[in-house]
Predict the structure.
Amino acid sequence: MIKTKDKIIKSALMLFSKKGFLGTTTKEIAKDANIAEVTLFRYFSSKEKLFNEVLRSQSFLPTLKDLISKLESLDYKEALEIIARYYLKLLKKKKDLICIMQSEILKYPEEIREIHSKIIKEISDTFASFLESLKDRGILKDIDTKYASMAYFGMLFNLFIKKEIFKNKINLKKALKTYIEIFYEGTRRI
């Protein structure tokens, strides 16, 4: 049987993905979860705290950490390809939530923008640490790994937006191969 907290998160995700943070009320979430609104507030003291939990539950961070622990022994280029495929797969799966968030982000309360930024920073910092370990092993040239991490995820997110949101006719395999080649050649020690 699904736990009440999980039902709330599931309902919140569905409604936030359809109506956005600003367009969704806690009353609607409680109704969809088939609970009283007061029950929702026993688990989450505010809609912002619930949104934070939803974002964390949908984050790429746990997947990235798990991948990195398994990729340490792989070829650098192969590791980049695997991370990119998993990242793009997750973005595609979360497309509705991402669309709503991108359209609302400037209207969010400061607390929500900070939560969003913190999650993105954690992902970037985790990948930067992975790149730093490769640099320490002599695989990467002397680059600022934080900026390299931002560039890597930035170009992948851009590819996702163009392909999935704007519906540009993009050969995903070819684009991904090119993006990874550019990043790989620009960062590896020759």
